[in-house]
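In the design runs reported in the main text, the only information available to the sequence generator was the tokenized backbone. The following block is the verbatim input for one such run; it is reproduced so that readers can re-run the procedure and compare outputs position by position.
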């Protein structure tokens, strides 16, 4: 019985790793088309009170990187280009 539990745990772990790698690949490698930037950025900027500047910079970043991180905040590590593009002052350019 202990062997079957560890086998099930192992299989679930493998499936979780595969799923997470697929999510990272889908977001992190510039797979978006430029026509997909507007809906992705609309969702990304939906929680901010500064929608116009957020949309401006998000669309600019998306058109360059072809990637928008998932969610309304954070998760930038899945889009290296989006994450690493900085302002002249060294702050993040992309929301």
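Verbatim output:
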């Amino acid at each position: 019985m202990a062997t079957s539990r560890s086998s099930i745990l192992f299989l679930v772990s493998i499936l979780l790793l595969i799923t997470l790698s697929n999510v990272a690949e889908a977001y992190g490698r510039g797979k978006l088309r430029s026509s997909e930037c507007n809906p992705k950025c609309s969702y990304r900027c939906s929680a901010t009170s500064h929608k116009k500047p957020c949309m401006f910079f998000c669309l600019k970043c998306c058109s360059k990187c072809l990637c928008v991180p998932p969610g309304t905040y954070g998760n930038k590590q899945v889009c290296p280009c989006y994450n690493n593009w900085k302002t002249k002052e060294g702050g993040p350019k992309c929301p």
